[in-house]
Amino acid sequence: MKLKKITLLIFTAVFVSISCSSETEAGRAQKAFEKKDYGRVLKITGVPPLDDFKNWGSENYKFGSKARDPQKNNAELADENILLSQKNKKIELMLLSMQKVKDIRLSDYIAAWYEYFAITDIHIRFASYLRNTTDDTIIVIPAQTGNMIDFRLSCYKRLWTDAYRLLENNFVKTETTVFCLDRAPAFLIDATNSIIYGTSNRIEYASLLSNEANRINNKTTAFLFSFCSGKIYDKSGSEYRAQALEQFHYAMNSAQTPAHYDYALWYYLTLNKKNSLRDALDSTREYASTWFDSTWYDDFLDDISKTMLENQLWDTYYSMYTFILPYASDVINSKYAYIAGRLIQEQLIIHSKTTDNAIEQAFQTAWHSSDGQLYYRLMAADKLHISSKQILQELTHKNENWNIKADKNTIKTIENLFKTQNFESIHYIY
């Protein structure tokens, strides 16, 4: 059911029974709300200027290289999710208290919360209570805000056909055919996905977005339009691959942040890989020196590594190894370097330098890739005849986030690995 006219419920204590630590702002706001001290809640949460509120939502929406957080471990991601949850709980309490004090700005903040922010379970809960309001104190939510809520929630639930229908009926301006000017990235990405997965009429939208990207002067908006156009072309079949590549390339040139540039370049490289390995290698050689976050490309470089090995392109592999050393992450360098050393060792390639020196250099590179894959580092250390004591000294002097401890069990495990040569088991231990 569409939210053409939605009213705001006076929420019960059950709704606002949020598990927050008393040390957090959300926890203090929770306690104040339970005491019906709504003015105090708003002092704790604050009601930022609407534009600042929208900007916070856009800046914290996971788009660009933030979308995969390649450098972050699970603990860091969990901490981020806790902070995001606390932020949304604060916003929830802010909106509830604004309703209680009859703040006339309430509907504007609800609209912004659903357009500019990543959708969470808290948004779903809030919308559910909006639908079931029966209170005398009624605040009418504009129909367009209701449409936005329905659209974003449909996308969150991956109900793409429903989402596209809502997009087409409520946001596509047929008189101008411009349906997303001045829209938040969160909305635009959802709109793109609803077009990709919710309709067969994709190409019209891809063309529209690419035309608008070329027409407008705002480079951030141009980036978003061309990137989304590229995604639609990419999902429309191999016959549109040239257009997709063109749009991702345009997005790279329009990017105003390193994260956006890396995002567009990653799509450009992986799409070239769909064309051929040669295209992937050529585009890597052309653009590797321009990327910002090397870890963002780990999966792409790992993929072409497998393809080169499967096709027994030994010389190509070694050439790519030496090329990417300055640009790739330790994760990639540890793998490429170890395999390159083994290729020479097995005489699958003939190196122009002294063979022994080239082999040792490759294994040293793998071993000294301090943030590299432990599997390849240990195998390289074995080839270099490094003692288990020296290995442990190197591995355990890392910062407190490192997951290897210099305890007896670890020492025993490492020593056993070298005794049995069962390095594969390292994948299951660490």
Quick take:
It contains 22 helices and no strands. The chain has 430 residues and is mainly α.
Commentary on this structure:
With 430 residues, the chain is mostly helical. Helix content is 64%, strand content 0%. Helix 7 (143-156) runs antiparallel to helix 8. The radius of gyration is 27 Å and the shape is flat. It starts with 24 loop residues before the first helix and ends with a helix.
Order of helices and strands: HHHHHHHHHHHHHHHHHHHHHH
What's the helix count?
22
- Strand segment count: 0
Q: Low-confidence parts, pLDDT < 50 over ≥5 residues?
A: 1-22
Through-space gap between termini:
49 Å
Helical proportion, percent range: 55-70%
Instruction: Give the structural class.
Output: mainly alpha
Largest sheet: none
Overall pLDDT metric: 83
Give the overall silhouette: flat
Strand content: under 5%
Write the layout of secondary structure elements.
Layout lengths: L24 H10 L3 H8 L4 H11 L13 H27 L5 H11 L4 H11 L11 H14 L3 H11 L14 H14 L4 H13 L3 H16 L6 H14 L3 H18 L1 H11 L10 H13 L3 H11 L5 H16 L9 H13 L6 H10 L4 H8 L12 H13 L5 H4 L1
Helix pairs in contact: 1-2, 1-4, 2-4, 3-5, 4-5, 5-7, 7-8, 8-9, 9-11, 10-11, 11-12, 12-13, 13-14, 16-17, 17-18, 18-19
Question: Can you tag this structure with a few keywords?
Answer:
mainly alpha, 430 residues, disordered N terminus, 22 helices
